[in-house]
Design goal:
With about 260 residues, the chain is an alpha/beta fold. It contains 11 helices and 10 strands. It is about 45% helix and about 15% strand. It has a 6-stranded mixed beta sheet with strand order 4-3-1-2-9-10, sandwiched between helices. A 4-stranded parallel beta sheet has the order 6-5-7-8, with helices on both faces. Strand 1, helix 1 and strand 2 form a beta-alpha-beta unit. GO terms for molecular function: glutamate racemase activity. InterPro entries: Asp/Glu/hydantoin_racemase (IPR015942), Asp/Glu_racemase_AS_1 (IPR018187), Glu_race (IPR004391). Its EC number is 5.1.1.3.
């Protein structure tokens, strides 16, 4: 049986990339909701409908687990999905906990970047309230990064000026950690590094999600059933066009090249 991966677009490939390192002998479905991306600027009700439509499609393929490889989709719908479906459903969470714990004793701040919808959702707000006793967490929406990624635009000429402008009001020397709270953002980790002081860590929740998936599959005794094959779907249509498949392959190569 396959493992399903879902994201509003290509961001979840950063999670699948890490998954292949840990679980290379599984088969995967990757579903990108390319007709409706981006989610972060849409209403919660609208996004929830898209998520449930995609989840139903993936579950009907007979997957043994479903990874919601999208922070926005997780924050909007993960609990309702777990009520509806009996298979394990693994979600994403911005890596606020490790960032805050790391910074507790060094009097530095944490900057959490994500989509606007993720940042205003109760799930994240409750997490920050629970963990941020010293009020060291700042929030920064970076919606244009999703658009750049969906256009396969990874050029420094486009992205660096945008990031510089968004980070301009922050004294980056006051920060120890920046959290990439949207899976799309991890494609730009190398560009964040160019703009940040060398001591600032850049972290995301991807590997925590992968470890959770592996642990869950071990608990249900359902590991190592495939060969690493990935079947891609764009909003329910299987991707068979060679040019599109080559673009997906190039994304994995980019992640390897930036030492992700």
């Amino acid at each position: 049986m396959q493992i399903g991966f879902f994201d509003s677009g290509i961001g979840g490939i950063t999670v699948l990339h890490d998954t292949l390192k840990i679980l290379p002998y599984e088969d995967y479905i990757y579903y990108a909701d390319t007709l409706n991306v981006p989610y972060g600027s849409k209403s919660k009700d609208e996004v929830k409908k898209y998520i449930f439509d995609a989840a139903e499609f993936i579950v009907q393929k007979g997957v043994k687990a479903l990874v919601i490889a999208c922070n926005t989709a997780t924050s909007v719908a993960i609990e309702d999905l777990r009520i509806k479906y009996s298979i394990p459903i693994i979600g994403m969470e911005p890596a606020v906990k490790p960032a805050v714990e790391k910074n507790e004793n060094i009097n530095k701040r944490v900057l959490v970047t994500a989509t606007a919808l993720t940042l205003k959702e109760e799930k994240l707000r409750n997490l920050i309230t629970k963990l941020d006793n010293e009020h060291i967490v700042d929030l920064l929406p970076l919606p244009e990064l999703v658009g750049f990624a969906e256009k396969f635009d990874f050029s420094e000429e486009t992205v660096l000026p945008y990031l510089k402008e968004q980070l301009l009001e922050y004294d980056l020397n006051k920060y120890e950690t920046i959290v990439l709270g949207c899976t799309h953002f991890s494609f730009y980790k190398d560009m964040f590094r160019k703009l940040l002081p060398s001591n600032v860590d850049i972290i995301d929740g991807n590997m925590g999600t992968v470890k959770n998936l592996k642990r869950t599959l071990e608990e249900i005794a359902s590991l190592n059933e495939g060969s690493g094959k990935i079947t891609f779907y764009n909003s329910g249509i299987e991707v068979q066009d060679e040019n599109k498949l080559r673009k997906y392959s190039e994304l994995f190569k980019r992640l390897d090249e930036i030492n992700y």
